[in-house]
Specification:
This protein has 102 residues and is α/β, with parallel strands linked by helices. The chain has three helices and five strands, in the order βαβαβαββ. It has helices spanning 17-27, 44-50, 64-77, and strands at residues 5-10, 32-37, 54-57, 79-81, 86-88. The strands form two sheets. Strands 1-2-3 form a three-stranded parallel sheet, sandwiched between helices. Strands 4-5 form a two-stranded antiparallel ribbon.
């Protein structure tokens, strides 16, 4: 698990997504990548999965603000590892003491 999360809201981006994901992989090879598929009717989700990204499908097109919010929520729910602890972000914020220094 990386300490960097990149999420990409996408709606019908099958033509552009391969280049974006390939460039991202070169520039940030260790980043966790999420494509938020905002109800695409093309192969956006399939292409993202084939290039190693996680995919969160919203089912129907809900718009960019919802796609961004979904990406942030996913990032908050990812397990976070610090040098002294492994924590899982609860819905209402970080677990107390998770990043306390020893």
């Amino acid at each position: 698990m990386s300490d960097t999360v990149v999420f990409i809201p996408a709606w019908n981006e099958e033509e552009n997504l391969p280049a974006v994901l390939d460039d991202l992989g070169r520039e940030l090879p260790d980043a966790d990548v999420l494509v938020v598929d905002d109800g695409s009717t093309d192969r956006t989700a399939e292409i993202a999965l084939a290039r190693g990204a996680e995919v969160l499908s919203l089912g129907t097109n809900r718009g960019l603000p919802i796609g961004i919010a979904a990406g942030y929520r996913w990032a908050l729910d990812v397990t976070v590892t610090s040098p002294t602890a492994t924590c899982r972000a609860p819905r209402d914020g970080w677990a107390p003491g998770c990043f306390d220094e020893e």
